[in-house]
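To: structure subgroup
Subject: Chain for Friday's discussion

All,

I'm putting the inputs and outputs inline so they're searchable in the archive.
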Amino acid sequence: MSITVWFDPSCPFTWRTSRWVKDVAARQDEKVSWRFLSLAILNEGKDIPDNYRQAHQRARAALRVLAATDERLGQDAVDRLYTAIGQRVHVQDLVLDKDVLVAALAEAELPAELIEAADDAELDRIVRASHEAGQARVGTESGSPVVAIDDGPGFFGPVISSVPAPDDADRLFEAMRLLSSVREFSEVKRARDPLS
């Protein structure tokens, strides 16, 4: 089984979903493939509040660093770096800026010079290609996260407010796996709980 997650590091719901996926994958001895989804790309040309636009631009720099990490050092390094970024941004409530990226690179035991990628606009093509692949997998414009199991369709979400306990986490994953195997299935939605 393969699990692919497209993520924007600035999204708090995505952070929780990523921790759920890692938890389930570890118990099932499965690898997670981390792919890039950019809320900045998703919202290009749209009228969104300035604070969101600024957050998306900071995430763009982080995505460049993550893309360079993937190119040079692979998926395990991306996993470590995203974890270190997410702890700072979504647990410690720090702003996703270069200082956070520098500290995350150090914690993840990655080369400090990877921070130079934050300003390398050439990496945007890698992020955009990954973003577009994730959108194509869903089949319609979708936010972060996108999760796909095996070669099944991608789905927006699941959006979770906190990481479920192991039994619930496994049931949720099994439900996603089963839904992804039904070609005719398209969407399920309900009110969103506040983050916890």
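Points worth raising on Friday:
The beta strands are 3-7, 32-36, 146-149, 154-156.
The domain at 3-180 is CATH 3.40.30.10 (Glutaredoxin).

D.
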